[in-house]
Amino acid sequence: MVPGDETADTGHDPETDPATTVREVTTDAEWDAAVPLLRQLWSDADPEFVRSWREEDDYHLFGLFAGGAPTGAGMLVGVVGVSVQRVLHHRRHAWVHDLVVDEPRRSSGVGTELLAFVERWADERDCEYVALANRLDNEDALSFYEAAGMERWGYVVEQEL
Fold first, then answer.
1. Best CATH choice for the domain 21-141 from the list 2.40.37.10, 1.10.3720.10, 3.90.1260.10, 3.40.630.30
2. Phi, psi of 90 (to 5 degrees)
3. SS3 category, 113
4. What ranges do the domains of the chain cover?
5. pLDDT in tens, 133-151
6. Nearest to 63 by CA among 49, 80, 84
7. Among 64, 78, 147, 151, fewest CB within 10 Å belongs to which?
8. 71 φ, ψ (degrees, to nearest 5)
9. pTM for the full model?
10. How far is Cα 127 from Cα 28, in angstroms, rounded to an integer?
């Protein structure tokens, strides 16, 4: 649990909780709740840097909210940041930048629900693929993505400037 995260101990189960909804994170309050979740993945990132992603033109952050009506507040239990890009063979991809489930809720179906949302979102935007980069040492995430039907393809190589 990240200090300041107000989303603990809801007992959320997206498969049995009908009050679950995924929607774009747009308000200051929603971003305030999302930043601690994103920092569970990007722990070395300053909170203000994470908050600055909101200003990027093509970055969309969606949250899975539990315990509220579709337009109600609910409790943020997972987030996914995506954009549409032309990558790998110049094909249209929905690129997953961040997919984070609040640590106490991992393995409860939240990640699966978020990934299914991304697939629908990508299809509506005529994407041919959903893709992401995964750290080499993050075997848990890699196992999750492969279990969801994603395949390893190539490598991401980079050089810091």
1. 3.40.630.30
2. 60, 30
3. helix
4. 21-141
5. 988 888 999 999 999 999 9
6. 80
7. 151
8. -110, 5
9. 0.82
10. 29
